[in-house]
Amino acid sequence: MKRVVSVFVLLCLFVLPLNVGAISTSARAAILINADTGEVIYEQNAKEKLPMASTTKIMTALLLCESGDMEKTVTVTAEMVRVEGTSMGLLAGDKVSYKALLYGMLLASGNDAANVTAYALGGTVDGFVKMMNEKAQDLGLLNTHFETPSGLDGEEHYTTAEDLAELARVCLDNKLFATAAASKSATLEYGNPPYRRTLTNHNKLLKIFEGAIGVKTGFTKKAGRCLVSAAERDGKRVIAVTLKDPNDWEDHTALLNYGLQQIKTTEISPKNSEYSIPVISSEIEEIKVEIGEYSVNSLDGEGFSYKINLPRFVYAPIKEGETVGNIVYLKNGEEIAREDIKAQNSAETVVFKKSFKDTFYVYFRRILNSIWES
Q1: CATH topology identical between 4-262 and 268-373
Q2: Mean pLDDT throughout 141-154?
Q3: Which residues are catalytic?
Q4: 88 pLDDT exceeds 80?
Q5: Distance of alpha carbon 184 from its chain centroid, rounded?
Q6: In sequence order, which residues have a C-beta less than 8 Å from that of residue 42 and are 6 or more positions away?
Q7: What is the pLDDT of residues 259-310, one digit of tens each?
Q8: Phi, psi at residue 102, to the nearest 5°?
Q9: Domain extents for the chain?
Q10: Which architecture does CATH list for 268-373?
Q11: Do residues 56 and 218 make contact, with C-beta atoms less than 8 angstroms apart?
């Protein structure tokens, strides 16, 4: 099955200065990346440490998505919602699900939702902030440090445009997060007793930009206007980040369009698309596998290669559709994607009524044949 993965060539200011003049922003810091590989298309002060306001909730939401059962409920206490700023309307005594907390953070930007999540997962706000910082380290976000789960300002609460883009890239691969972040609105039930209410996403790009799929807005007086956005068209995905940007909606419209317009499609076709693998302990001598054409989105269409990983033989039983190997696609020697290679037919286990010598000879011939053919 054909799948599309976007791959961009790193564009540095000193390498391709013409692209610098093609796009600019009003932001203190900005970056535009390939959502699939993380390669940079455009950047501006992308490594500068800055406050990030409610884009902090991207990390809080990711930890919530990874925590387990999204239907699990929490009974809200007064301590949990003792926080200022934007709210999804939680009160002490309310019952709220993890799913509602997720949408409350990503749509309504609820500081109350972030705080309740912190208590539910970390026991305390400090305990959860420790989890946030550990996750940042695990993801390689070395210029990021959290002090609050909601994004309220702190002396050591900061990130970079570069780190935020990488965090968003990881989050978009989480189906729960991606679905919520792309939702223009959501009808949920919570309260005491729970009742239906509708939340509207603060990210207006979802309504005005074709292909917008998220991600999160943010604002405090110290941080200014912060925005992380993402868009997808024809299988091509890009992520834009701006920090301290008074003109963020217009800037992101320009950034997303620019990134999507740079991408061209390159087809990668393996020299051999069909292979046979000997089977041990079966009357079926071999299973067939097939490798399809692969489409890669890139700026230059050069430097692509692939590596096929298949075993010399397999043991029965093998079911049709079972994974038996993989193909790795590379750009300038670096892995950009991999796909499973699946069996095209089944091979059941059979106990042969032959001598050990005859059985060994059959299997040995199958393996030798596979080596000679390769």
Answers
A1: no
A2: 97
A3: 54, 57, 109
A4: yes
A5: 19
A6: 11, 19, 20, 23, 30, 31, 32, 255, 258, 259
A7: 999 877 788 888 899 999 999 999 899 999 999 888 887 767 778 899 999 9
A8: -60, -50
A9: 4-262, 268-373
A10: Sandwich (2.60)
A11: yes
CA distance 171 to 106: 12
**What are the structure tokens assigned to 127, written together?**
């305990």
The burial of 211, by beta-carbon neighbours within 10 Å (0-12 exposed, 13-18 middle, 19 or more buried), is given as middle
- Tally of CB atoms within 10 A around 127: 12
Burial 70-84 (b: 16+ CB within 10 A, else e): eeebbebeeebbebe
Of 336 and 94, which is predicted with more confidence? 94
CB atoms within 10 A of CB 17: 10
| Alpha helix stretches (DSSP H) within 92-199 | 98-106, 111-122, 125-138, 161-172, 175-181
CA distance 115 to 106: 13
Map tokens 């564009």 to a residue. 11
Q: What is the DSSP letter of 145?
A: B
Tell whether the model's pLDDT for residue 21 goes beyond 90.
no
291: which 2 tokens? Answer: 């490798």
Given a contact cutoff of 8 angstroms between Cβ atoms, the answer to whether 252 and 227 are in contact is yes
Give the separation between CA 229 and CA 255, rounded to whole angstroms.
10
The pTM score is: 0.80
pLDDT of the residue at 35:
87
Cβ of 215: how many Cβ atoms within 10 Å? 32
pLDDT in tens, 93-139: 999 999 999 999 999 999 999 999 999 999 999 999 999 999 999 99
Q: Please check whether residue 318 is in contact with residue 324, taking contact to mean a CB–CB distance below 8 angstroms.
A: yes
Q: Any idea which fold 4-262 has?
A: Beta-lactamase (3.40.710)
Length of the chain: 374
Q: Which of 58, 20, 312, 306 is nearest to 164 (CA)?
A: 58
CA 228 – CA 54 distance, rounded (Å): 10
